[in-house]
């Protein structure tokens, strides 16, 4: 698919069919957030104040991790301005929602709203985009990583989902820090370190064992849930010259009850078309996308999307394909030959001709020397 359109082109065609209330903040989403905050406080107090059996602590940790992730999804929605419009209240509520994930609202809006959404799947400008062969060739670290056999690397990549959101947030702090005005840098640092200070303060109060169940294990669970979504959002899609959400984004399907608990975070293509719209209305947006552009829209069950990620590499070859550099195996992307039900690769042939030419040159030179 080479005829790309910017997200505004699609939005302009769908918007007239949507009710006016779809473009208004939905404050009722805060009731869900309040419920999760209550679960988090109750769970942390239960682990911290009582000497529970490890099995009970483990179960509470899973609930806490699920709640951490859900609050992150709500924080994402809040900081897009779809819950409240008042800037200071938006940032305050967003900071509270992202507190367990230790990400500040100013950094998030710079990283996610102003960079990722504006330059989705642009190799240089999207901070979440994966590298191309050209970028790989310029990085010694990446070149070394991609010498590791693919099965080992894929296993490590999936196990790293449990820490990837946290590590990427820290990386984004360093990446964008210089872009903030000097007067805002102190605020960015304060918003970043204050959540960590509270969680480390909890460690000092309750000790390592209780802290593990009250925060560390829930954080790992939350990272895994959040990154399971984020990993499927764009990583099977091509790099694109135009920010076309139907080309560069994937919506996954999950059970309805999961969508309710996760604030419809699975509707990712819809979100990139209408980032300032509450996710409450994304099922309606999906209906019109599938009616108008059924051949362009990408969706699949989350399990299938994760399996496709497991079976494909994460380096781009000529923008619209994925390549395993060590073996030269080339895979399609969504809209460019990738069939998640039957993932196959082709061999990269481009290097064979030059090598043959070199071999013939060496043979000719050797023959010439033999005649002297």
TrEMBL record:
Positions with biased composition (Basic residues): 355-365
Enzyme Commission code(s) on record: 1.14.19.-
Region feature Disordered, mapped onto this chain: 348-372
Taxonomic path: Bacteria, Bacillati, Bacillota, Bacilli, Bacillales
Organism: Geobacillus proteiniphilus
Transmembrane segments: 30-50, 56-76, 150-174, 186-205, 211-230
Keyword entries, A-Z: Membrane, Oxidoreductase, Transmembrane, Transmembrane helix
Fatty acid desaturase domain mapped to chain residues: 56-300
GO MF entries: oxidoreductase activity
Official protein name in the record: Acyl-CoA desaturase
Enzyme class, first EC level, given as a word: oxidoreductase
